[in-house]
Amino acid sequence: MTIKQQKKLYKELILNPSKKNIEQLSYRFTLFCANMTKFLPHVHHSNHYEMFQELLYFQYSSDIEQNSLEYLDNSIIQNFSSIDIENHTNEFPLVFATFHLGSYRLLNCYLLEKGFKVVLIIDDNVFNTKLSKFTDTVDNLLRVKETTDLIILNVSDRKSIFKLKQLIADGYVMSVYLDGNKSVSNKSQDFSKGFIPISFFNNEIFVKNGVGMLAKFLSAKIIPVVSFRDDSDINHMEFYKEISISDYATKEEFAIKSIELCYNKLEEKLLLYPTQWECWIYIHDWFIRNMEIPYIIYENLENVFNTERYKTFVVNGTHFIFDLYNYQSFEIDATLLNAIERNNFETLDRNLYTELKRKNIIR
């Protein structure tokens, strides 16, 4: 089956989901809606479901595209840096800093085919679940050069920093995903250690600061790389101007501002291709969810479920209402679920009805 056939088949599954699939995805969809509402409020909530379907499609596409030499060969490369990627010489340490946007897996395939010796830094989740698939691609598919080599290090391994220093000295370049926060499960919402706050679409998020610190420690230049698919489904890779320590007053400023600058490049592309970034499903783990958006009093009550602020989802047969503004959920029974689905609240208990109005669940 060709890559186009695989994509077509998967798209059909997404566009025609079973009731079971809808329920299984309902919690992820709800979180996606909340994150869209927070970071891209200009997008009308009626577009969220179609965008979620697109995100699932692109997420699947990224996985299979890394095994397609044709897709790699047809990629459009734009290099705005001063680094000669075609004929690279190891004049100074380099960090290629990218994101989970577009066909993001192809960056490392591209670097390896150009003869780079790459040390890839990944987190526990990827290290344990997807490592073998990528190494199979490298070993059995890519047209590598004699100089090509790939070393993969687990960011959680304390010995990695010492291995990395020696590898960089031996002419390796470092490849990292700056938004590799998927493994973050910060239940305490404590970002005091290992994170830096940055502005992202006029909101504060906390991202891991390891890459900036490593670049400072290694005196490395950072090259932001952003991938995306155009409307013809052609992959693009853009290599931006390198960021150097000399661009800033201090090394400490470089370690933080360089990461902010990379995220600025991501923002620019997300305004054009928002559904190609898989992190919309879990970015809520990157900020403190202590907001309390007040309820309002509607002058003209329509007596309908407020789909702008609330969504319903189901987990293990139990149904919930989720407040997209405050990131809070409430368990509901079958009677209330039925009322919401039918948009008919006349038979509800009067006290419950009053509470639904107060919390703007009914508008």
Question: Which ranges are low-confidence, i.e. pLDDT below 50, for 5 or more consecutive residues?
Answer: none
- Quick one: biggest sheet? 7 strands, mixed
Q: Give the structural class.
A: alpha/beta
Radius of gyration: 23 Å
Shape assignment: globular
User: Helix content range of the residues, please?
Assistant: 25-40%
Report the oligomer. Answer: single chain
Q: Number of helical segments?
A: 12
Give the spatial strand order of the biggest sheet: 1-9-8-2-5-3-4
SSE order in H/E notation?
HHHHEEHEHHEHEEEHEEHEEEHH
User: What is the number of beta strands?
Assistant: 12
Please report the distance between the alpha carbons of the first and last residues.
49 Å
User: Which whole number gives the mean pLDDT?
Assistant: 91
Strand content: 15-25%
Notes on the structure:
Helix 1 (3-15) packs antiparallel against helix 3 (48-65). A hairpin with a 2-residue loop joins strand 10 and strand 11. This protein has helices at residues 3-15, 19-39, 48-65, 69-73, 106-113, 124-129, 131-140, 160-169, 210-218, 251-270, 334-342, 350-358, and strands at residues 76-79, 94-98, 117-122, 149-154, 173-177, 195-200, 203-208, 221-229, 235-239, 310-315, 318-323, 328-332. The strands form 3 sheets. It has a 7-stranded mixed sheet with strand order 1-9-8-2-5-3-4, with helices on both faces. It is an alpha/beta fold and 363 residues long. The chain starts with a helix and ends in a 5-residue tail after the last helix.
